TrEMBL record:
<keyword id="KW-0378">Hydrolase</keyword>
<comment type="function">
    <text>This enzyme scavenges exogenous and endogenous cytidine and 2'-deoxycytidine for UMP synthesis.</text>
</comment>
<dbReference type="InterPro" id="IPR006262">
    <property type="entry name" value="Cyt_deam_tetra"/>
</dbReference>
<keyword id="KW-0479">Metal-binding</keyword>
<protein>
    <recommendedName>
        <fullName>Cytidine deaminase</fullName>
        <ecNumber>3.5.4.5</ecNumber>
    </recommendedName>
</protein>
<dbReference type="GO" id="GO:0004126">
    <property type="term" value="F:cytidine deaminase activity"/>
</dbReference>
<feature type="domain" description="CMP/dCMP-type deaminase">
    <location>
        <begin position="8"/>
        <end position="135"/>
    </location>
</feature>
<comment type="similarity">
    <text>Belongs to the cytidine and deoxycytidylate deaminase family.</text>
</comment>
<dbReference type="InterPro" id="IPR050202">
    <property type="entry name" value="Cyt/Deoxycyt_deaminase"/>
</dbReference>
<dbReference type="InterPro" id="IPR016193">
    <property type="entry name" value="Cytidine_deaminase-like"/>
</dbReference>
<keyword id="KW-0862">Zinc</keyword>
<dbReference type="Pfam" id="PF00383">
    <property type="entry name" value="dCMP_cyt_deam_1"/>
</dbReference>
<dbReference type="InterPro" id="IPR002125">
    <property type="entry name" value="CMP_dCMP_dom"/>
</dbReference>
Length: 138
């Protein structure tokens, strides 16, 4: 993808993740998160975290985002952007890293951004080295 087109896609993903962030349901932790992914087909899907009084039932933005794409018939992704308004950039939790490794290639980039315009990126392989994926089920 040409650099200009890639920059435009990342900007659109950041906006979609921030919009999803605004819909997050986090009355217990007040830790609001939005995520947006670019599918291999070029579509942007988003998700937010949804907490539950039974904390173990909380679902993170990254997993909701990927699930939304699957609901829409897409299972392959190019990249993922995660948005929070935390002072410290926060990487995905372990459960999200596992789901990300299931659906994004090891070389795909995951970027975390915040309201201060700070960002950090990792490849899926950096987030979860030696991930257990479908190829391990053979």
């Amino acid at each position: 993808m040409p650099k200009v087109q890639q920059t435009l896609k990342i900007s659109a993903l950041k906006l979609a993740a921030k919009k999803a962030y605004n819909n997050a349901y986090a009355p217990y932790s007040n830790f609001f998160v939005g995520a947006a992914a670019l599918t291999k087909a070029g579509n942007i899907v988003s998700g937010c975290n949804v907490e539950n009084a039974s904390y173990g039932l909380t679902v993170c933005a990254e997993r909701n985002c990927i699930a939304q794409a699957i609901i829409n018939g897409e299972q392959e992704f190019q990249t993922l952007v995660i948005y929070t308004e935390q002072e410290k950039l926060t990487p995905p939790c372990g459960a999200c890293r596992q789901v990300i490794a299931e659906f994004l290639e090891q070389s795909a980039v995951v970027t975390v951004v915040n309201h201060l315009e700070q960002q950090i990126s990792w490849t899926v392989k950096q987030l979860l080295p030696d991930a257990f994926t479908p190829k391990d089920l053979v």
